Automatic annotation (TrEMBL):
Alphabetic keyword roster: Germination, Membrane, Transmembrane, Transmembrane helix, Transport
N-terminal signal peptide: none
Organism: Geobacillus thermodenitrificans
Name the UniProt record assigns to this protein: GerAB/ArcD/ProY family transporter
Keyword Transmembrane helix: yes
Amino acid sequence: MIVILVFPDIELENMFPMFENGLLPSIMGAATPQSWFSECFLMAFLLPHVIDENHGRRWGNIAVVSIMLTLFFTNLATLFVFGNITASFVYPVISVVRYISIADFLEHVEVVVMALWVVGVFLKISVFYYALVTGLARWLNLSQYEPLVFSVGLLLCLLSNWSANDLVELTHFLGTTGSFYLSFVQTVIPLFLLLVAKWRNRAASPQPAVSHQERK
């Protein structure tokens, strides 16, 4: 909807020049969005509770592709509107939404976007919270995770203020070391654990018995 509403302000020449300094700057610039996108690994904590695992995996893949396309078209529309100054905005999507003005009637759409943003962040924190307490309960060999909810929530409140004092510090972290940290925690470690689990299951699977005649 954002792409459609800002279509009158879109200028395709803002995307040029492309690859002015080669392909490497584009790859390095994709590191930060990739670290955010790697949060999709949280679906692994929800799949064990799905009745039909194949059905859940299919819709999980559909969700990942939908998110990818949404981010792609939204960021592309922002680039078409602002051009080279896109990186100077703290929240470029909100800034481009403020440009929406159709017949002096449809304006201030950023209120709707902010409402959706708040709801999305709430759901995101809830899934992170659930993954943390369930994973911690399994690590401690607890039958239920409910006793950990309050204590972990208290730690989350304390650590959220300690990890970043302000927006400038948080932005600097996400744009520098945060990209490598998030990719390592959310992509490399889960992939390594998956390979270990595959190897352990393969090693523990019983081998078919071979008779003496078959060995001959």
